[in-house]
């Protein structure tokens, strides 16, 4: 089985990051993670200072997010940022869709943005939740989006938990994405009716099979994210890290 570099999506520790940006990232590095999916630094910190901090901690920038439910952002600014921090050349977005027509319109716009990113050497990724598994004319919104975007211009950063929450098997769903999934979000699900978020390896998802399909489809980085935690978020990140290490996933 392939061993993957494992990063963190800092949304997991968003409250700690807002209170103590440097200290929160230091704790991520102390756990052992090698990357963060992070954007430009907070007010008062330059990008150069952010890079010096991340270099000191041994954390690579895996990529960044462009925002939520918007296609209005500065492509060149994000490409410049990733270039400046020598980061993973990936920018992800998440959108909402109210109709098939809206999916198709946004797919067209994503192709245009993806072409601009490609010219800058950046992969443009779509990150899902569960609402993309609503059907329009018998097809999932996510399937329509994938069908109507160019695989060379729009790739994916799908999320194992949200695929399962949407009613699909993550392993089976990911198989269709060969060459189109440079990043993968790892997130587990508790057993039971609530289907609450769980630390990786503590829930019901089959991460050994997920790792195998990730290798098959060309995933480069796995990124741990937990939207909400029943314990301290850093402890949740530690548990996920140790479980992934125990399963032999770590590069």
From TrEMBL:
Any Pfam family the entry gives: AP_endonuc_2
Gene3D superfamilies reported in the protein's UniProt record: Divalent-metal-dependent TIM barrel enzymes (3.20.20.150)
InterPro entries xrefs: IolE/XylAMocC-like, Xyl_isomerase-like_sf, Xyl_isomerase-like_TIM-brl
All residue ranges annotated as the Xylose isomerase-like TIM barrel domain in the record: 25-227
Domain of life per record: Bacteria
UniProt KW keywords: Isomerase
Gene Ontology molecular function: any one: isomerase activity
Cross-referenced PANTHER family: HYDROXYPYRUVATE ISOMERASE, INOSOSE DEHYDRATASE
Protein name: Sugar phosphate isomerase/epimerase
Organism: Paenibacillus antri
Lineage of producing organism: Bacteria, Bacillati, Bacillota, Bacilli, Bacillales
